[in-house]
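FORM 12-B: Structure-to-Sequence Request
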């Protein structure tokens, strides 16, 4: 998930006004701009989804039985039938999480990770496959979130790691297919993060906190999409749910081409609600055309207001409104008003196909 951060390069250039004083308009910082819409237009509150929902992208937010019970109550209030928890965990950590969440077996499904021990050594492979099989026996029914943004798997700082199309990962992808375990994979990041952080970057206010343009040696955005495509081609029996619109919300035509070419590819909408609401008509057309290949996901914690914001975006005709913080920081939101058929696919039916 993403949160608005201050831009220190701007913050030091101009002093803040004293308490009680208004900032002169010529000194208002872009990062401090908080417009309020004055249009007298409909405001629709959607507290519960129109149809039952499976949230295919969350993480182990609950760490105690009390927190888990509260989450289930929230799901009931919001119309969330089932939640997929992407733990990314293996070993004792996965076992402990599974034991906790198994108190509600019909409400939660846990996915594990890969064992990255000796990932970049010549002997990597058999032990990782063995651990994947063990997690499956414990109760894991999918794998994820596998995150690779350009540095390589399990690399958070220095580039040079292996990528999903590497032959050393082939046995893992094939074992996922054999066990019927879909994979949630995070490929690249938003295109704005790779662009120059200048006056032409219309995602600057968010991208500056996640920037990748200044990190030498990483694989760029286009290169990461190529890596995904090679992986999909090599492993047609493995189901991949590439999250966040495959980080192609800026180029839905290309995403559509990938979906057309690879029937083992699905995508979720998690964490890209601001972008969806910026181009609502085009996004709605895409969601209608590819209903059956797109699933609902949040990736934004557990909060009733959060669920309601996503339902409002998908179900209503509301326009030109703001949702700050993790949802947006400068673009206005405009809802999609998806058809009942597309909503049913997005909310539940496609997830059931993936989860079998």
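FORM 12-B RESPONSE
SEQUENCE OUT:
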């Amino acid at each position: 998930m993403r949160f608005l951060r201050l831009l220190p390069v701007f913050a030091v250039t101009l002093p803040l006004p004293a308490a009680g004083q208004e900032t002169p308009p010529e000194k208002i910082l872009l990062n401090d701009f908080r417009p309020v819409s004055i249009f007298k237009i409909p405001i629709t509150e959607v507290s519960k989804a129109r149809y039952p929902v499976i949230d295919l992208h969350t993480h182990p937010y609950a760490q105690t039985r009390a927190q888990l019970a509260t989450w289930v109550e929230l799901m009931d209030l919001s119309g969330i039938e089932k939640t997929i928890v992407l733990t990314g965990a293996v070993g004792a950590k996965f076992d402990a999480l599974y034991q906790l969440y198994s108190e509600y077996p019909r409400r939660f499904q846990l996915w594990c990770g890969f064992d990255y021990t000796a990932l970049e050594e010549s002997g990597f492979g058999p032990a990782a496959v063995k651990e994947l099989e063990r997690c499956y026996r414990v109760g894991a029914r999918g794998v994820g979130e596998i995150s690779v943004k350009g540095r390589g798997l399990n690399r958070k700082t220095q580039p040079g790691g292996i990528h999903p199309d590497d032959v050393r990962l082939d046995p893992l992808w094939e074992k996922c297919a054999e066990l019927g375990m879909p994979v949630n994979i995070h490929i690249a990041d938003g295109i704005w993060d790779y662009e120059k952080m200048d006056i032409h970057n219309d995602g600057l206010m968010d991208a500056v906190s996640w920037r990748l343009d200044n990190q030498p040696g990483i694989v760029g955005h286009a290169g990461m999409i190529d890596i995904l495509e090679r992986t999909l081609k090599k492993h047609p029996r493995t189901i991949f749910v590439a999250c966040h619109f495959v980080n192609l919300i800026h180029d839905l035509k290309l995403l559509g081409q990938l979906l057309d070419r690879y029937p083992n590819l699905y995508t979720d909408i998690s964490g890209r609600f601001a972008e969806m609401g910026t181009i609502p008509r085009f996004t709605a057309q895409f969601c209608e055309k590819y209903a059956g290949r797109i699933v609902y996901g949040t990736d934004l914690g557990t909060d009733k207001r959060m669920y309601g914001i996503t339902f409002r975006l998908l179900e209503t005709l509301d326009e030109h409104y703001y949702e700050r913080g993790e949802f947006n920081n400068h673009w206005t939101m405009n809802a999609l008003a998806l058809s009942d058929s597309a909503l049913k696919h997005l909310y539940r039916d496609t997830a059931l196909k993936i989860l079998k």
